[in-house]
């Protein structure tokens, strides 16, 4: 458990963090159930997505994106791992449970689960679903370095200083390989077959 990785700063790398009960609950759950590598990845995924939106003037729901980003990999952790569901679907169910306790209406709970599931699916255009698009942008940049040229080098360097990778590439690769072995038809298995190991190894963030 990552019980020491709380981040109380109002902003990271110049990107403002949202506030409120849902944001704090998602951060606490992620910090409790993930290690430092996954916790920092979850935060960076939000920040990459939010920075991308900010630079392009995209209007998005900060709370929804943050909650989805902080919970999107819970299905990779032992307490939430499903032996039948893909990890992103298990994470979506975890998000629905947490947000039910926060009093979110059904439609908004469904949206959190949808954003988490869609981050592992084919690209979603911003005009169709901006939060899913931004989580895809954020996770792709952080996992494989895809689309890093969309971000200012100064932003990326500051983000890595604030939230070090802590061996994230190797940790994530082991997790998706395990998912793919046990659930060969899931999206994680597709990542492995599609050469995610090579993309992670080539990710410039792994060398920062």
From TrEMBL:
Gene3D superfamilies: Hypothetical protein af1432. Residues 34-110 form the HD/PDEase domain. It comes from the Bacteria. This is Cyanamide hydratase. It comes from Streptomyces purpureus.
